[in-house]
Amino acid sequence: MKRVISGNQSVSYAVLSAKAQVIAAYPITPQSSVVEMLANFCSTGQLHTKFINVESEHSAMAACISASVVGARTFTATSSQGLALMHELLHYASGLRLPIVMANVNRALGSPFNLKADLSDSLSQRDTGWLQFYCESGQEVFDTIIQAYRISEQILLPVMVNLEGFILSHTYEAVDIPDQVQIDRFLPPPAPRDCLDVENPCLFGGTTDFYINFRYKMHQEMEKAKAFCQECDSEFQKTFGRSYGLTQSYLCEDADMILVTAGTIAGTCRVVADQYRKRGLKVGVLRVRLFRPFPSEWICKALQHAKKVAVIDRDFSPGCGGIFAQEIKSALQGTRVSLPVYEFIAGLGGKDVTDEDIGGVVEQTNQTPEPGGVTWIGLLK
Amino acid sequence: MPMQPWKPTSWLFFRVLRKEVEREMKKRYSVKSLEEMPITAISFSTTEGNETGEWRSQRPLLDSEKCNQCGLCWMYCPDNAILPEKDSFQISYTYCKGCGICAKECPKGAILLVKEKR
Amino acid sequence: MKFPIPEEEMLYSGHTACPGCGAVLALKYVLKGLGPRTMIVIPPSCAGTISAPFPFSSLKIPVLRIPFETTAISASGIRAALDVMGKKDIHVLAWAGDGGTYDIGLQALSATAERNDNIIYVCYDNEAYMNTGIQRSSSTPEGAWTTTTPSPYLKDTPKKDIVRIMAAHKIPYIATASIGYPPDLIKKVEKAKQKVGTKFILIFSPCPTGWRYSSELTIKVAKLATETGIFPLYEVEHGEKYYLGKKRPEKPLKEYFSLQGRFRTMKEEDLRRVEEKVRKEQEYLARMAG
Prior knowledge:
The complex is a heterotrimer. Chain A has helices at 7-18, 32-43, 57-70, 80-85, 87-95, 120-123, 138-155, 180-186, 211-240, 265-278, 296-302, 323-332, 355-367; strands at 2-6, 22-25, 50-53, 74-79, 101-106, 131-134, 159-164, 172-176, 203-204, 247-250, 257-261, 283-288, 290-292, 308-313, 341-345, 374-376. By secondary structure, chain A is an alpha/beta fold. In chain A, the strands form three sheets. Chain A has a seven-stranded mixed sheet with strand order 3-2-4-5-7-6-13, sandwiched between helices. Chain A has a six-stranded mixed sheet with strand order 10-12-11-14-15-16, sandwiched between helices. Chain A has a two-stranded antiparallel ribbon with strand order 1-8. In chain A, helix 7 packs across helix 9. Chain B has a two-stranded antiparallel ribbon with strand order 3-6. In chain B, strand 4 and strand 5 (88-91) form a beta hairpin. Chain C is globular. Chain C has a single domain (22-289), classed as Rossmann fold. In chain C, strands 3-1-4-5-7-6-8-9 form an eight-stranded mixed sheet, sandwiched between helices. The chains are: A alpha/beta, B alpha+beta, C alpha/beta. Chains A and C meet through strand 3, helix 3, helix 5 and strand 9 of A and strand 1, strand 2, strand 3, helix 3 and helix 5 of C. Strand 9 (203-204) of chain A pairs antiparallel with strand 1 (42-43) of chain B, so a sheet runs across the interface.
């Protein structure tokens, strides 16, 4: 059935549909309403789950880890500072190969203090071994969380679903929530795996010099994960009639210039691309949805006919530049090293990225023969 | 002091991954190949292969005539190296580390500590 | 033949505890009290190292090794998962040392106690960060040598009173116990497992390596701590009802301190001060027990 709900509420409805068994979460703006709604579902009996009111995000992830080792389906949600606080445990969760799903509402990391959308928080966790999805709409958030449970329980790696703070988390749209029977068909109860079990005692997480072998196994799984995510998305299409792919192309087949971005900026980019098409400039938009594992093959394929690429990053790695730009440049290294990649940083700290800003990006990319370092949009004059 | 013959079991715990140790691990604990390893560090084997008796520099000797089977030595042994045997107790020299708690706590003085000969 | 404590062993021999280790004795006794239907979480600590590296385990029950500061919350997470899956008869044991309880793990412990999650939290107290090489913790007593409080900069603040902190949370059961008195320790464990809610047991676990005494004296040192009044044995229910153990201080403090090398530089006036503190503590406990 369709409901007019916010991005955060989509997260809560998805967790309700997925029937998570243990939820441990700590409030942080802009994630708090996710947790409030889940607590509400628990109190009305709609969600049969143990809800642990933890005292910090670090403990929230610790609770999810230990509950998941016993075999329960778990969930937590957080943002910037909380995600950063959990950092050591993100490594722990992926190292123990646990199917935890987390919703991260992207928010800028202080200092300076800022509560609004910025992808740097989740991108700083790119080495933790978690799969990462970046969503553009409330419907996609709902669908991706359902897919995330299926993916994580199959490949035994945790999944992070990202949505931008306030821009997506607090805006309302009509979201189709499928009925529970359909969801149960797509997302069956988790398959048995090695768990803590008194009938068959073992020790999880021991010290080992075989460490490199376990990391290699994780690497192998991550490589297989790309194909699995694609397959899962196709299954989702068959069951629910919607799919998103690992990347979403818009008019990229014949585009001379392709704008590459993640999250809600893609929507603005598409509007601007249409405007420029009317003026004769062939612009396409590529939205990266799966960031880890990085879908290099999919991206190179989408960019294969482009003459110029402009990457718009809503994130920043000091001393390096935009993170998506770096990943895309290294992905192109193998196939199209000569394709010029123009780097732009915009929207940090929730600064609105308008169609004029994107227009500026297109103009600059079009007029400049060579990319020359990172261009920052929206600074004070 | 004569050179000790190399014993794979004790060396394992110094985490020195030499080829011989890896081979021993594979033989004893069925860690045969990369494919057969679990996806994360999950331990299913016990520590009973580690003969901590090698650590001893003094050895306890139990005089069964003085022993009144109170069970205090069995209770206080940190290594479970004193085992019930028929209606008395026996020291397991495979695991006894020679800490001396049993000798100290025995109310009848039935346990004597002597220097370990090697 | 009568055994003073339950017969079934829950630890395998061949673990790498130091000869004469008090911590492994604490683990041995508590597991005997809880039995095989138990799950344990262990942070990095002496117990973590004793539990053995991959692919071995020295415990007969399922073990989860967890990050340092998360002992209490990891136990709560396991409890939540077991309850949701309907396995409410399995005991969940959080096993941390003094460093992981008094210092880095205190936040999570306080939260678990406040939520009154149904777990047993045991702190085995060897009065320093022994596993990493004898560094001081907030549980190290005044005047003790550690590698981070070398002479003359010995620890100059008193041992943190974790029992008072836990009593303030009004949890159903708190007990202090000692490896010097295993039947009493096991009785307290059995009492704890009957209760629902957060149970906290503090176990006095002497360490020959860190306290600088010969390994055969572990049990003697543990008993002397209680006999001199340094470590009184008592129980607290709901933060209000105090029950004192039968052992009253009867021996001079000097006997306890003289056995340990870590108190070698203790002076007469320090001894007087400690005697005064011990006396005050006894008075306080007597008053609370009514």
